[in-house]
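Job type: complex structure
Entries:
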Amino acid sequence: MAAPFRTCDHCSKPAVVHNTVIVNGKVTEVHLCEEHAAAAGIQLPGHAPIHALLGQLAQVGAARPRGPACPECGHTFNDFKSTGLLGCAACYRAFASTVAPIIARSHDGATEHVGRRPARAEVAAERTALLTQLGRELEEAVAAEQYERAASLRDRIRELRPAGAAGQEGRA
Amino acid sequence: MSAALDDRDVVMSCRVRVARNVAGFPFVARATHPQRREVLETVRAAAGTTESTLGIAGGRVGAESPEPLAWIDLTALPKRDRQLLWERHLISRQFAEGDSPRAVAVTADERVSLMVNEEDHLRLQVLRPGNRLRDAFDTAMRAEATLGERLDFAFDRSWGYLTACPTNVGCGIRIGVMVHLRAMRVTNEIEKVKRAAKELHLAVRGFHGEGSDASGDWFQVSNQRTLGVTEEALLEEFAGRVVPAIVAYERDARRVLLERQRTLLEDRVFRGIAMLRSARLLGVDEAMKQLSSVRLGACMGLLPDVSIDELNRLTIQLQSAHLRAADPAIETDDDERAARARMARAVLGAWPA
């Protein structure tokens, strides 16, 4: 069973911390890389349920009775605290300072998704990045009074912008 | 003791669940009823009405199958039928109890269910008897990919798929097994399993999953961590290490019982079968308790004429809504207890005959 090189239980990096858990006389090994061991505080704290984590933040909530509201859906910090649920995708950014540590604690210190990505989101993300760049170029062209260039940039932006974009924003 | 097919002696069933939300809509708890209806129609159109349209027909990608995907509108469903779906592990209790727009799609073989408007817009579940996690995982990933071609899922580059509860972000996948740890209960080793599970960041729940009492002999064990780990690594960890370890512990406990406490073991098993074959009134808790002992005996060869698959079916057939659906004449609790006893006798052979 024992391999000469162990990788971390949570990623493919080499394990530097090796813990042994004995259950019913059977030895179970826990292997962690530097990063995950640090994230786990080496003592491998148990997974804390969301309400317990939120309970620790109760005082923050008390200091801000209503707390900030999500600009997209109006969900407040109190709504989150009482239900453990966020209101929409934009809440993750609106409450980032509260949500980020909860996510890290719930996932063994992890902060980056490494699994599959939706093909459609990748396409959309690339298009968004290109639109941002073209928008910047358009501003420069207008500032430099290069009107012909600005017109062609405006046409490209119009072509790239998804047809349903305005409707999508309206729904959220 | 020889290893049973699919670890069926210990693993009752396995399940892979995927949580997704449709971009552009608030999460369910924040969404208005018209928005929830719109989400429901959007997902229904994307998933379609056959196994082919959900991308899970046959064993190959793109395979065709006319097998239907039945859409069940929960709001139009009587309470008893909602409970029936819950007893079959096709929907969660939370989903069964709500009255806002929601529906579940179920394949004819009940292998795949897709809850729309539970805590997240989509909760896809693949449930298989025994330990067939890799099979369940492949089916879940194919259905997810098919839906992902037609729907924009809420996604963040750092945090992955966004879910209503931040503890589910990342790949949004839960891999779990329902295990029968009767022998470890007798040898008082359940607490050790719970402690080890906690250290490995696993959730341990009772027969009916979230919110149910983990004090019986059946346990649902699943991963909790979903961020910073790939889907395949989660499966590898769970199917390759966690499940084999649990199965080995329980088999060890069974062997110890057989070698050192055979009389105690036989007493529990034969009392159990005698009760189920002779009782005239049977409550659900008592039925489950005796079924558990009988199942242990059947798995260990003490009851050669009792089939494990039949016992697995009984754990569901003896639940309240199943009995009431099978016999509309049931009105009182005593009627139900009598019907439960009749069902047990009919399946396991009545004594006296």
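Summary: The first strand of chain A starts at residue 17 and ends at 23. Chain A touches chain B through 48 residues (CB under 8 Å).
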